[in-house]
Amino acid sequence: MALPLKDFRCGITEQIDAALDASAVAFGKDKQTVAREVLAEWARLKHREHMIYGRRLRANGLQMDLDGFDVEDDGARRK
């Protein structure tokens, strides 16, 4: 069963469009699928980067707190 998708639109350059199109043709996919795969890989790498960063901070006795944010902040706006 496929995961539900969110609609996301952004402008891209001609070069990016050509690269997505070439990859889609080469691998028998549509451009949206190729773009989704690229973004999924980027998100996976950013998550890994964040996890390594957190471990290194903790190894040096530091916290991942960012100035101006509550420790329990879940990304929701403050009221």
Please describe what this structure looks like.
By secondary structure, this protein is an all-alpha fold. The protein has a domain at about 30-65. Helix content is about 55%, strand content about 0%. The model has no long low-confidence stretch (mean pLDDT about 90).
Characteristics:
79 residues, mainly alpha, 2 helices
- N to C succession of SSEs: HH
Question: What's the helical proportion of residues?
Answer: 40-55%
Distance between the termini: 37 Å
Radius of gyration: 18 Å
Counted beta strands: 0
Overall structural class, as computed from helix and strand content, comes to mainly alpha
Summary of the model, kept short:
It is built from 2 helices and no strands.
Provide the fold topology.
Layout lengths: L13 H14 L3 H29 L20
